[in-house]
Amino acid sequence: MAKIVKKIIKITIPAGKATMAPPIGPTLAPYGINAQDFCAQFNEKTRENDGILTPVILTIYEDRTFGFELKTPPTSELIRRELHIKAGSAKPNLEKVGKLTKEQVLKIVEVKMPDLNTSDPEQAAKIIAGTAKQMGVEVEL
Question: What residues make up the domain containing 112?
C-alpha cells in the first residue's frame, strides 16, 4: 500500500554540507522527521560534489518517514563554477564578467540535461546561453 504524503518540500543545500543549522533544522522540525538522519543520507549521496548547491525535493509521509530526490545544480551555479567567478554582473547588458566557450556550454549541458525540458542538446545549449546572458556572461556558440 502506498504511503500518504504529508508534505513536499523543495530546498537547496550545498552538497555534502547539510547540518541541523538553518535552513534545514527549522524547516524539517515541524514535520517530526529525523533531520539528523536526512542530513546524514544527503551528505552521503552528495559528498563528491564539493559543496555545489544542490536542489532537493523532500517528500514527508504521514508516518514521519521521508524520501528525497536530488536535482541537478542551478544553471547559474554551474556557469559560475565553470568560469571561476563569484557572481554574475549587476548590469548584465553593460558589464560582462566572463566568456563561455562552446565546449564549456556543452559540458554544462551534459550535467543539466536530466532536468531540462528538452532532449535536444542544441536547444539545451540555447537555454544555458540564455541564463549566461542574464548573468552578464558572453557565450560563443
Answer: 75-139
